[in-house]
Amino acid sequence: MCGIVAYIGAKQARPLLIEGLKRLEYRGYDSAGIAVLNGAVSVVRTVGRVSVLEDRLAESGDLKGSVGIAHTRWATHGEPAERNAHPHVDDRHGIALIHNGIIENYAALRTWLEEQGHTFTSETDTEVLTMLISELYDGDLEKAVQGALREVTGAYALAAICEKEPDTLVVARKGSPLMVGVGADEYIVASDASAIVAHTSRAVTLDDYQVCKLTRDSFRTSTLDNVAVTPRIQELELELEQIELGDYPHYMIKEIFEQPNSLRNTMRGRIDLREGRVVLGGVGQYARELVKARRFILLGQGTALHAAMIGEYLLEDLAKVPAEVEYSSEFRYRNPIIEEGTVIIAVSQSGETADTLSALHEAKERGALALGVVNVVGSSIARDTDAGVYLRVGPEIGVASTKAFTGQLSVLTLLSLFIARRRFMSVEQSSEILRTMERIPEMVERVLAESDQIRAVTERYCDRENWLFLGRGYNYPTALEGALKLKEISYIHAEGMPAAEMKHGPIALINHGMPVVFIANKGAQYEKVMSNIEEVRSRGGRVIAVATEGDTDIKRYAEDVFYIPEIPEALSPLLAVVPLQLMAYHAAVIRGHDVDKPRNLAKSVTVE
Ligand code: M6R
Prior knowledge:
Layout: E1 3-8, H1 13-24, E2 31-38, E3 40-47, H2 50-59, E4 67-73, E5 88-89, E6 95-100, H3 106-115, H4 125-136, H5 141-151, E7 156-162, E8 165-174, E9 179-182, E10 187-190, E11 202-205, E12 210-214, E13 219-223, E14 228-229, E15 234-235, H6 251-257, H7 259-267, E16 271-272, E17 277-278, H8 287-292, E18 295-300, H9 302-317, E19 323-327, H10 328-331, E20 342-348, H11 354-365, E21 369-374, H12 380-384, E22 387-390, H13 403-423, H14 427-448, H15 451-461, E23 466-471, H16 475-490, E24 493-498, E25 515-519, H17 526-537, E26 542-548, E27 560-564, H18 573-590
Parallel strand pairs: 18-19, 18-20, 20-21, 21-22, 23-24, 23-25, 25-26, 26-27
Antiparallel strand pairs: 1-4, 1-10, 2-3, 2-4, 5-6, 6-7, 7-8, 8-12, 9-10, 9-11, 11-15, 12-13, 13-14, 16-17
Helix pairs in contact: 3-4, 4-5, 7-13, 7-14, 9-13, 9-16, 13-14, 14-18, 15-18, 16-18
The protein binds 5-amino-5-deoxy-1-O-phosphono-D-mannitol (M6R).
C-alpha cells in the first residue's frame, strides 16, 4: 500500500533512503517524503513520484545525516497533497513519523489531542499518531511509541525519529509488514525485502505488536508492554537480480515473460508422475482433513479472486468436493456459515491484502481449517493460515498481477489433484493431467512468441473505449481477468462476463466496431460459444478470439485470432490468459500509460 524505509548507521542516509523508496514505489506513489536527523529534523515532502522528491532534494540542497526515514504513499485519509504526505512532524519535540496502515480511532484521539493543545496541519491519521507519541514523550522515544500504540486500534507499520535522541530509530508493526535488515553496524528497515536486499541478506521480520529500538550498533525488540523479545535473524530468500528490470522496459512484460520459468518453479518437486501423486509439503500434515473436507470456500480479491473462481471449478471437477468462491471483502460481513469439515483457502499474491486477511481471521474464529495460496513468504496471510502452498513465482512488482495468477492456477490445480488422488482418482488419470501440466511452461513459451502479432492486433483496437471479454466454463473467470488487466493499466472500460449472459442485457452495448474478446478454445461449450460470437457479429461487434491451434474454422467468425496449444479444458486458463495479459500490456504502452504504476492503484491493498 505505502512503502517505508528507514536507516541508522554510519553512512549518509539520504541516497540510501531514496534508492529504497524507488524499490518500494510500486507499493504506492501519490506522494513521497523523507526526514533526516542532523541536529534538527529536516523534512522534504512532495506530491507525485519519488523522482519529484529527488528533484526537490536537488533544489533544496543536501539533506545530511546518518539517521533517517522515508515514505511513499497511497492516500487513505486526505487527498494526495504535500501536507498529507509523510513524514509528519509533531509540534513539540521534533519527532518525525512515517506510517503504513490505518489508525481506526484517530478521530477520537484527534479531538483529545486538540484539547491538549496540539495543532494539526493535515487530515491524516498518521499525524494523529505523531501527536500522540509527542504527548506521551518524556525523553524516551521507545517508551512513547509503546505507550501510543497501546492506545490505538487499527493497523500499522511505522518508523519514528526524534531530534532529542539523535542516535535512535524506533519502529513497530501490527498488521502491516515490516522487517529490519541487519548489516554490519547499520540497519535498514523496510516494508518489504526489496529495499533491503542490496545492503544485507540478513533480516528480522517483526511480529504484530512488536517494537524495535535501533541505535547505530545494536537493536532490541520488545512488546508494547516493554517485555524484551528475542529476535530471529533469517536469511532473505530474495536475490537482487530478481527485482531488477534487466533488459525489459517494464516489470509487467518482464513478469509475463517469466511465466514459463515461474511455472516450472511452482511445479518443481511437487509432481510424482509414477504414482500420479502431488507432493505438497506445506499441507501434508493436513492431508486427512483435506480428503475428508465437506466444503471448500475460496477467498480473494481482484486477480486472486479470478484464480479462486477457477479453483472452485477445479476442486469440484477434479476432486469432486463442493466448493464456492467469494470476495473476501464480502465474506466477513455476511455472517458466513462454517460447518464442520469446512476448509477455507485464502488466495493472495502479497499475503497482505487486508480484506482477505480479515476474512481469514473470521473463518478461523468460526472453526474453519485455513489454507493459504500465497506468494510472499512470511507474509501475514502465510503466517496466519494453518497451512499452505507457496506460489514460488518470485517477486511480482508490476501492479498488474500476471505471473502470480498463473502460479495460483497451478497451485490450485495441484491442490485439487492432491485431494482427488487420495479420494478416488486413478494413477493413470492423475498422471495424465500432471504430464500435461509439466508441458505447460513450453506451451506458454509458444504463446509468448506471438507477442508482436498480439501487439499489432491490439494497435488496431486500442482507441476504442469500451470492450467486452466473454468466456464460458473454466474460461469465464479468464474473461474477467482479461477485462481487469485491460482496465487497470490502459484505463479502457472493459467488462468480463459469461458468454451466455451477454444476451440477457449487455448485448445492448454492442455497436459497430466494439471489440469483443472471446475465449473460444475447443471444449465442451465450443459450439455454444460460436453461437454467442454470431450474436455479436450480427450487431457489428468486432470479434477477437483466443482459439485452439488448428481451429481454422474460427477465422470465419472472428476478425482476429490468437492461438493457444491444445490442452484439456481444466488447464486451459493457464494458456488462454497469456494473450489477454499481452493485449492489456500493449494497449497500455500504445496509449502512453505508466504500465507498472497505473493511476490510483498500489500493488498491495492493506486497508479494508
Ligand atoms: O496481493 P493480492 O493477490 O491479495 O492482491 C489482490 C488484488 O488486489 C490484486 O490482484 C489486484 O486486483 C491486481 N492489481 C490485479 O492485477
